[in-house]
UniProtKB/TrEMBL annotation:
Chain positions covered by the region annotation Disordered: 1-37, 225-258
One GO CC annotation: ribonucleoprotein complex
Family annotation (InterPro entries): DEAD-box_helicase_OB_fold (IPR011709), DEAD/DEAH_box_helicase_dom (IPR011545), DNA/RNA_helicase_DEAH_CS (IPR002464), HA2_WH (IPR048333), Helicase-assoc_dom (IPR007502), Helicase_ATP-bd (IPR014001), Helicase_C-like (IPR001650), P-loop_NTPase (IPR027417)
Taxonomic lineage: Eukaryota, Fungi, Dikarya, Ascomycota, Pezizomycotina
GO terms for biological process, alphabetical: positive regulation of transcription by RNA polymerase I
Domain Helicase C-terminal as annotated: residue spans: 289-465
Source organism superkingdom: Eukaryota
Protein name stated in the entry: RNA helicase
Keywords per UniProt: ATP-binding, Helicase, Hydrolase, Nucleotide-binding
Helicase ATP-binding domain span: 56-226
Amino acid sequence: MGLLQSENTRMNGEMSTATKRKREDEAHRPDLNTKRKKLLETRRQLPIWSRQKDIRAAVREHDVLVLSGETGSGKSTQVPQFLLDMFKNGKIAVTQPRRVAAISLARRVADEMGTPCGSSSPASKVGYSVRFDQSTSPSTRIKFLTEGMLLQEMLRDPQMSQYSCVIVDEVHERSVNVDLLLGFLKQLLAERRQSKNPLKLIVMSATADIEMISNFFSKAHPISRGHTSADTDADEVSSEASWQGFSDDEADGAVSPDNKVSICHVEGRQYPVKTTYLAQPTEDVIDTALQRIFKIHCGEPMPGDILVFMTGQETIQSLQKLLEELAENLTRDYPKLLVLPLFAALSQPAQQRIFEPAPPNTRKVILSTNIAETSVTVPGVRFVVDTGKAKIKKFRNQIGLDSLLVKPISQSSADQRRGRAGRETAGQCHRLYTEDGFQAFEKDNTPEILRCDLSEALLKMKARGVDDVLNFPFLTPPPREAMEKALMQLLQLGALEEDGKISKIGQQVARLPLTPSLGRVIVEAATLECLAEVIDIVACLSVESVFLNVDTEEAKEKAQEARQRLFRRQGDHLTLLAAVQAYASESSDRRRWADDHLISHRAMKGAMDVRKQLRAQCKMANLFPDDSGPESDNEPPSEAKSDDILKAFVRGFMNNVARLCPDGSYKTFIGNQTVAIHPSSVLFGRKVEAIMYNEFVYTSKAYARGVSAIQLRWLEEVLGS
DNA sequence: GAGCACTGC
């Protein structure tokens, strides 16, 4: 009752809108039903439709179902609906790696079920929850969430008691979050099996790795006998070849007949794609791509757009220039060519252009980074040209440096790229490498957990009560040294006690949507009484670059002039603070202000969202001094306060300090590595006693990003605290 | 004097 009450109170503020929405929904109810019926026809055509009984039986009889299904099988939308009536007392959670996917799947499933979506009506059965946007109702039965969101929920409610079933989708992408989730869920399954409220888990992944995933779930936990399956209807289990209870398959007899994991494969629906390779490896992939694009354009009938996978902004823009020059010279016998770049840093309207239909008699060529491999679906593509390379980030824990280098992609990544040509009709994939080259690729992408700084993952585990992180059930255990390095880092931050248990500070940090270093900065700022200011800066650091890149000399001068008022000699941190304060106090036209200052409006809006969230969380954690609200006054900080702000950052980034050497270079305080100030920094080209930086990235050389000038004596001061 | 692929809380 109390809970219900507060739920109502919370909704009160929006009552008028909510009531209005409800009336609208009721008026549209016949519409919802018509839509549902119409969609039912489409659903029946999906490959997965005929497998409903199998899937239900498997979930009834086993704790875990590992389901592989290629693109177009319909698994993400249908499986939750197939299972819904089996879980009368709890919700079904469905995780997705990306926000847009979670939201659009929720909308689609709501339409298919003939129910309103999310918070639009209290009767809505399908909702979603992503950062900054939670849309559920008291009647929500199926909830789509991002992986990170479910992890946060798990920290607050370790038993996940509101869910009877968790579906983890797109596991083959192997984000750190999905690896953590699966480890936690494996432990939770064992706990909940003993309870009145057992948990079912469905893991959905690409075909290649279902065996390793089912091994993961069946191995370390001993088989439980006689678990609840009162309503089992054995007749429903079909014996199709692609369907296996694990016992049929396991030759070594390690798993008993009533094991708890089953696997199931569902065919996808893709059009055939003809694949070609080079006979000889190419020296100049841009030139080869250029020639191949023209060969396709001049040789293949219309319609059919071309999607080219490349490594980054720079190569994309140079190929775009070459293509446009050559396209000028095309005779009237050929269709026109429209070249469209696609990468994440591109403005939203520029990205939208790929969805607009091309003018008559024009073929689109989309030059894209990896963004088109998973995040963005480009319509109308019949031809894929694949350079076989991508920029891949890897953390080197010995020196605490991220490298971001061009590397060959994996075979599964190459196949994913190829699949982009067969979504609407039969297509072609032109691989700009040899078949031997393809065979030499790694089979799968290296899981992120083997490539990243582990401190955040380990802190989350500690916060969930996993004391022995070295023996955590990892799908792919990271090297011991990497984990030890991360534990050392957490200890140094004061997030762990000497005995390895999580500290009070660690608990506070783990709840924040930040890396442990940035979280520690927040906690330090609270004691130095500069929290509001530090939140503003941290908010900027956790979004894409606030200051826009400018290409031309002319634009650069203009930007320099417009931003002059914002620049602070101490460095990037106080400059970001000045930018946020100026933006926040701009009451009339913020977009125009951003444009005038060559500041990304999108990034600034993102920073304001993060700021709001961090302020709320810090208030909840009582990090603000008594009665002082999180509202900063937008006053420029005094000299002393500026120093405190930077000291707070030094507390979280003690290993990221470098001093100026007589030869004019900067060398890290720990490890004596050479580091250059990144050209995007306001300190670029300046010489100061010492610098502190948030990121240490190796691209063409080792760069420091997010840089401020500090005094070396602060280090001792901060360490004393 | 030279520039970061992509997600997520």
